[in-house]
Amino acid sequence: MEKAAGSLSAGGSYPQKNAEILSSQYGINLFLAGLLLTFAWAVHAVGISKSHLLSYLITLMLVQLLWMLWYLCRSCTQRRLIRDKDTHAGARWLKCGITLFAVITLILDSFKIGYYVDFSNCLSPTEGIFPVTHAAHTILQVYFLWCHAKDIIQSFKTLERFGVIHSVFTNLLLWTNGVLTESKHQLNEHKERLITLGFGNITIVLDDHAPQCNCTTTTPCSIFSQGIYYLYPFNIEYHILASTMLYVLWKNIGREVEHHQQPKTPFKFHGITVGMIFGLIVLTSTIAIVVVYLIQIGGSKIKSELALTMFYLHAIFVLALMCTAGVVALLIYRLEDRSLDNSKNPARKLDAELLVGTAAGSWLLSWGSILAIICAQAHPKYTWYNLPYSILVIIEKYIQNLFIIESIHREQEKANDDVKTLRIVTVSRGSTLSLSPSYKEIYNGRASQDIGELPCLFRGSIYARERDGGGGDNEETSQRDGSGIQSASEFSLCSQSSVADNKRRILKNIAAFLFLCNLSLWIPPAFGCRPEYDNGLEEIVFGFEPWIIVVNLAMPFSIFYRMHSAASLFEVNCKT
């Protein structure tokens, strides 16, 4: 009988597994069709215009809007039902981050609307409809993610799988469209910079699909056209973050979760002053380097070479510091004996896969630069700095990935069970009542935090009183016979707690420092400071077109890696 029930249960999972496979194939085909349409527009394929691409994207966004509205309405009608939640998905800091990027994306949409109004005489109506639809899509999607990113869907599972996966690949296509548009703008500037460096033999004409008419108002047109490209990095990050959050929601459909209270991990500035100070120094210096780089590059050959040299030296110094910090953190982990949490967790698994997958973009560029330096016949002086820079990029990502992945898989430190039991006994006997936590606090893990906040000697005396029981006869006996044991226990607790606190403080400072360093290294490529484009050596060895294709494919992953690493390190800091 039990065997039959088991086979029935197993058979019941087949339709849902088939729905998962079918929905994933639907999403992949949706994405491939849009990807080919984007590529056809980029290379000026016959019969394909920008209006066709935008019409396809508008249709996808409208379908997603309808699905999100249906889901929100159904959730409102079932508000009283208790829903399962994935406590690891949709962290508050992640929602705040995507909201910030969404606000800037809305500013980008307003600029696009203004740009369309100024060039309305020669632009397709779809170029005006697209930013309006995109703005509505952005507002509703952010609201949806704030309210339902943690949901574990258990009803209408087949329909919901198709709706969520449609949303995932819609955001990926919008991300691809943003990356392509921003890359085309970067390529035009890149060609001008190479000419100033003396690479005048490049004769490729790059087309930016500019409108074939004059602007009705010159000043606003200039503001809109230039401002759009400075806002694209935030739009790109918004869509990739949205797609990852929606992917976790898709993986959670029909999932069975353990019902237990997860401890909250708020971010605290206390104890990370050193890491924040050094990180802010790196962030400030990086912003200054980027400003000087963008001013100097392309001005003349000497200025361009100085800008590249300055960038490489600064990046080498920062990467060396990050490698050192990562090695110290890993050594601390090797000194600890703590088990790893191997429970099923789609959000954590996706984080680890994205770290390794997107790091491949930087590794590809770094190995290309190393080969170019080795194979090139002529080496301008500034290109030699590219060699240690490329090697450090590879090593730093190795170390940082290992640190982050191990950190998010480590079980949180728990207080000694004997100490918590003794503190409960103390409460029941009425001694040190004001210092002992309630049972609810102990259950939620707050007792371990309170123990760590008490002075060490005071903690030891409380422990001794709890162990002795508080009775008069026991106190006299312990004073006569156990004074040596009490002193040893106090010293042992003090030394163990002190060492653990120091390790935790060092790890929190390292996580804070690496968090700010990754934000710093996200800024240069996101805002046009890309030496892979500008030093010219790779174009000589590999050819202009092949290297540009490699950079355009790898750079978006490299940019996303830094932002995703910063988000993961923020989580590590909260968890440590």
UniProtKB/TrEMBL annotation:
Membrane disposition: Multi-pass membrane protein
- Name the UniProt key words of this record, in alphabetical order: Cell membrane, Hydrogen ion transport, Ion channel, Ion transport, Membrane, Transmembrane, Transmembrane helix, Transport
Decide whether keyword Membrane is in the record: yes
Q: Does the keyword Methyltransferase apply?
A: no
Q: Where, by residue number, does the polypeptide cross the bilayer? A: 26-47, 53-72, 93-117, 129-146, 229-250, 271-295, 311-333, 354-379, 510-528, 540-561
A GO molecular-function annotation: proton channel activity
The organism's superkingdom is given as: Eukaryota
An example GO CC term for this entry is: plasma membrane
Q: Which GO terms describe its biological process?
A: inner ear morphogenesis
The listed locations are: Cell membrane
Q: Which family does it belong to?
A: Belongs to the otopetrin family.
The UniProt entry, under PANTHER family, shows: PROTON CHANNEL OTOP, PROTON CHANNEL OTOP1
Q: What is this protein called?
A: OTOP1 protein
Query: Taxonomically, what lineage is the organism?
Result: Eukaryota, Metazoa, Chordata, Craniata, Vertebrata
